[in-house]
Specification:
The structure holds two protein chains of two kinds. By secondary structure, chain A is α+β, with helices and mostly antiparallel strands. Chain A has two domains: 2-42 and 148-180, no CATH class; 48-127, no CATH class. Chain A has helices at residues 2-22, 24-39, 66-76, 129-136, 148-178, 183-204; strands at residues 51-57, 90-92, 98-104, 107-114, 119-126. A five-stranded antiparallel beta sheet of chain A has the order 1-5-4-3-2, with helices on one face. In chain A, helix 1 packs antiparallel against helix 5. The longest helix of chain A is centred in the last third of the chain and has 31 residues, at 148-178. The two termini of chain A are 47 Å apart. The longest helix of chain B has 29 residues, at 117-145. Chain B is built from five helices and five strands. Among the domains of chain B are: 26-97, no CATH class; 125-174, no CATH class. Chain B has helices at 2-17, 41-52, 99-108, 117-145, 151-174, and strands spanning 27-34, 57-64, 67-73, 77-84, 89-96. In chain B, strand 3 (67-73) and strand 4 (77-84) form a beta hairpin. In chain B, helix 1 (2-17) packs across helix 3 and helix 1 packs across helix 4 (117-145). The chains are: A alpha+beta, B alpha+beta. Chains A and B meet through helix 1, helix 2, helix 4, helix 5 and helix 6 of A and helix 1, helix 4 and helix 5 of B.
Chain lengths: 205, 175
């Protein structure tokens, strides 16, 4: 039995170290994003990114509906690093021209198609670094963008989530097996647990 | 302290990644109360907070034909309020989150600009835990580097995390 416990302890340490090293980037990202979110002002007081205007020549093939036209524009502008269009992002502007919002980690491309001039009018809002980090920390393997970088990063975040679970389990083992009498750990548990329970009750009931 | 909140954060992450494993269903209750007539939305919210302990930030405000409608959004509870200014009749529809939904919403609460003191405490707690994550990452690297027998393999893992994580962040940002 003693050998088994020693074996488990050795591998709990190793797995804890390996999981934490592999997820170091994600841990930093989550921590930084959390600190940024804490320091942010009210939503209405946040600065909006500046709009950069440009145009691009584009002649839409005949007979496309609005959704298909949006897909053609997306391909024309090479907007792979944008979410697929949903209904709310497809509309008409004040003069009845089709308008599309292409959202992605770096911000928004609002594209209006002018059939008469054969031009795409593009309003580009590039997000701040803080907003960029906030957006990408939410990506997982379910992210619906075609871009390989986004997909690979989503896989990394999802992997990191599972690795964090492993880290929590191994850290519990390391605490209970090696240092369960540590008063500081007990104090941290009581303070953290107490605060969480208090806020849970206060904000729910 | 950070462990508990990190558990919440990660649990939320798992939910986002695999929502089919969870089937959150909020429970809803309706009630009617009488408040003084002729109040503004802000005054109605203050009455509800102080007299009925209906906590939450005021949002989704609409006013039309003497009827004020808004939402008081807390972490585990969302209350839709309909106030008739003429007679003070106030209808409350309270949606109580399921446990998993509440954990998920705790993960999204941030900042200390909220109208509700308890939500600001939650935001502060989340901020401290986030700061602790950064501290834990940096001290973890220092502790690992002192273990000479793990240095070589650990360096490989660090290279992987920098390429897979940080490298892709840079690649996405410059795209």
């Amino acid at each position: 039995m003693r050998k088994l416990v020693a074996f488990a302890d050795k591998w709990a340490r190793k797995l804890h170290i390996y999981a934490s090293l592999l997820t170091f980037s994600a841990m930093m990202l989550f921590g930084v994003v959390g600190v940024i979110a804490t320091l942010e002002p009210k939503p209405v007081e946040r600065e909006r990114p500046a709009i950069a205007r440009s145009t691009s020549a584009f002649k839409a093939p005949a007979g496309l509906d609005d959704a298909a036209l949006g897909a053609a524009i997306r391909e024309h502008l090479r907007l792979e690093m944008k979410h697929p269009l949903i209904k709310a992002w497809i509309r008409k502007d004040a003069t009845g021209r089709p308008q599309y919002d292409f959202n992605g980690p770096n911000g928004l491309h609002r594209v209006t198609y002018d059939d008469a001039s054969g031009l795409l009018e593009i309003d580009q809002q590039r997000t701040s670094m803080a907003a960029f980090l906030t957006r990408i920390h939410e990506y997982t393997s379910r992210v619906r963008m075609d871009d390989w970088r986004v997909k690979a990063f989503g896989a990394y975040i999802e992997f990191s989530i599972w690795a964090f679970v492993l880290m929590i389990l191994t850290s519990l083992w390391l605490w209970l097996y090696g240092r369960w009498k540590d008063k500081g750990a007990f104090a941290a548990l009581l303070i953290g647990g107490g605060a969480t329970v208090w806020l849970w009750v206060a904000l729910r009931y | 302290m950070w462990k508990l909140i990190r558990d919440l954060h990660l649990w939320s992450g798992v939910q986002i990644a695999q929502p089919r494993w969870f089937h959150p269903q909020p429970s809803s209750t309706d009630s009617v109360t009488l408040l003084p007539a002729g109040l503004s939305a802000r005054q109605v919210a203050d009455h509800l907070r102080s007299e009925r302990k209906t906590l939450g930030d005021l949002n989704q405000l609409r006013e039309a034909s003497g009827v004020i409608q808004f939402r008081l959004a807390s972490v585990g509870r969302i209350t839709d309020v309909r106030y008739e200014a003429a007679d003070g009749k106030t209808t409350l529809k309270t949606n109580l989150m399921s446990t998993s939904q509440m954990i998920n919403r705790m993960h999204f609460i941030s900042g200390m600009w909220h109208e509700t003191r308890e939500i600001n405490w939650m935001g502060l707690l989340a901020g401290l835990v986030s700061l602790a994550l950064v501290v834990m990452g940096v001290t973890g690297i220092l502790l690992w580097f002192r273990m000479k027998n793990e240095r070589l393999f650990g360096s490989v893992l660090i290279a992987v995390t920098l390429l897979w994580g940080l490298g892709l962040m840079v690649a996405m940002r410059v795209a």
